[in-house]
UniProtKB/TrEMBL annotation:
Name this polypeptide is given: MFS transporter
Mode of membrane association: Multi-pass membrane protein
Gene3D superfamilies the UniProt entry points to: MFS general substrate transporter like domains
Alphabetical UniProt keywords: Cell membrane, Membrane, Transmembrane, Transmembrane helix, Transport
This protein's GO CC annotations: plasma membrane
Membrane-crossing segments per the record: 46-71, 83-104, 111-129, 141-159, 171-192, 198-220, 248-269, 284-301, 313-331, 337-359, 371-393, 399-420
Domain of life: Bacteria
């Protein structure tokens, strides 16, 4: 991304003191491998803390889904107004993802994650103290920006610090944490609100974030800080690159559909279960919990790609999600809807890391910019999801959102086919044979 002449590395000796060394770029690969070997002796522990942090941070995005009726009654809001509590977080989270890459290159990925999480913990605590909806929305926006300092930076951290052979599995594990948050965030929020109140959801989460920040400081090795051309305006100019390449444009079109359908489906599902079956919060809690079973495929996506190829994995994931949504919309049998919601999640769990890999491959030398834009658009979709779901529900047709989201993903399927059809046979063979590397 940058014109790099030198790089700095932190070495840790046996006495735990740090030495800053500036090295020419032509020695980068040798020294980096030595540093990785030194710093990643406890790789499983590092992978777990990255997975855990991604899970709990993204819980704040999804925590408001079961709280929307509570906000509506507490602050005397319409359903659409209440939905902004989730959407505004997603919008500012997405915007933050555009710029944290520049900050992490300049100040180091670990440093950016730590400072960001400290701010995130504090703002989350303030959200729990909100006594009016306007202040809640402002704080949720700030919370979204602070949350953006972890997710995309963590993926870049893995790409730079982990040996190539370990990146596929690690990125799959971290991605599964992001997705599991979509279920766990709702479950934790529902439980805490039912036992205490909605304020307790954010107060308790803030404590979890503070403890997690301390663990990151202790466990995570320092990464290299690259010295080079970090001119902000020069980097901004490169943001047009993903919008000038057809393949990346098509990938970004798919991106907006993924979390839009995911968040929108769960927004509509809670409403449907309450209205049609009289489910209380506890019963809706159990249905949402079943979706966790669908997340188990995400860590294995890399192996699926190696064995079956990127095209087959992506198309299979999208087809699974489409079938799940359409059956939920057309056949109103409770047991079948629960099974189909799990099938839908299975598909999304495979599509998210696969698309992230594909964007990285198509981005080439500018994969950082391409991934930032992709992440931005992905979470813009997450912000639109609850708004679109509540708008469709105004028709009085409680299962219509499932059909609409299924049709949206069907459009994404056609775009996916177009992406691979446009590729030359040689490029296709290369993409299908590569294990994905974010």
């Amino acid at each position: 991304m940058f014109n790099i002449n030198y790089m700095s590395l932190n070495f840790t000796n046996s006495m735990n003191s740090s030495i800053m060394v500036i090295l020419p770029c032509d020695e980068r690969s040798i020294v980096m491998e030595q540093t990785k070997s030194l710093e990643l002796q406890n790789m499983n522990r590092i992978t777990f803390i990255l997975f855990w942090t991604g899970l709990v941070v993204l819980c704040s995005l999804y925590a408001t889904i079961p709280l929307l009726p509570v906000f509506a009654s507490t602050f005397n809001l319409t359903a659409n107004q209440a939905a902004w509590a989730g959407s505004i977080f997603s919008i500012f989270f997405a915007a933050g993802c555009l710029f944290v890459g520049v900050l992490s290159d300049r100040y180091g990925r670990k440093n950016v994650m730590i400072v960001g999480l400290v701010c995130f913990s504090f703002v989350t605590f303030l959200v729990g103290l909100s006594n009016n909806y306007s202040s809640l929305l402002v704080l949720r926006a700030i919370q979204g920006v602070a949350a953006a300092t972890f997710s995309p930076v963590a993926l870049t951290y893995v790409g730079m610090m982990y040996p190539q052979a370990k990146r596929v599995t690690t990125i799959g594990i971290i991605s599964s944490g992001f997705l599991i948050a979509g279920i766990v965030g709702q479950l934790v929020s529902s439980f805490l609100e039912s036992v205490f109140n909605w304020n307790a959801v954010f107060l308790i989460l803030s404590v979890i974030y503070f403890i997690t920040t301390i663990l990151l400081i202790i466990i995570l090795p320092n990464d290299e800080i690259i010295e080079g051309n970090n001119n902000f305006l020069a980097v901004i100019k490169k943001f047009k690159i993903p919008f000038t390449q057809k393949k990346l444009i098509l990938c970004n079109m798919i991106a907006i559909m993924i979390l839009l359908s995911f968040v929108g489906m769960y927004t509509a599902l809670g409403n449907y279960l309450n209205t049609s079956y009289g489910f209380n919060d506890q019963e809706i809690f159990y249905v949402r919990a079943a979706g966790i079973a669908g997340m188990i495929l995400s860590p294995f996506t890399g192996k699926f790609v190696q064995r079956f190829g990127m095209k087959k994995v992506l198309i299979s994931g999208l087809i699974s999600s489409i079938i799940g949504l359409l059956v939920m919309g057309l056949i109103q049998q409770l047991w079948l809807m629960i099974i189909m919601s799990i099938l839908f999640v299975c598909g999304i769990a495979v599509v998210v890391p696969s698309m992230l890999s594909l964007v990285g491959q198509f981005g080439g030398n500018e994969k950082g910019i391409a991934t930032s834009i992709y992440t931005f658009i992905l979470f813009i979709g997450a912000s639109i999801g609850p708004l679109l779901a509540t708008w469709i529900l105004k028709t009085g047709m409680l299962t219509l959102p499932f059909i609409v989201f299924g049709c949206i993903l069907a459009t994404g399927l056609l775009i996916t086919i177009a992406i691979f059809s446009a590729e030359k046979k040689t490029s296709m063979a290369q993409i299908n044979s590569q294990s994905f590397d974010a």
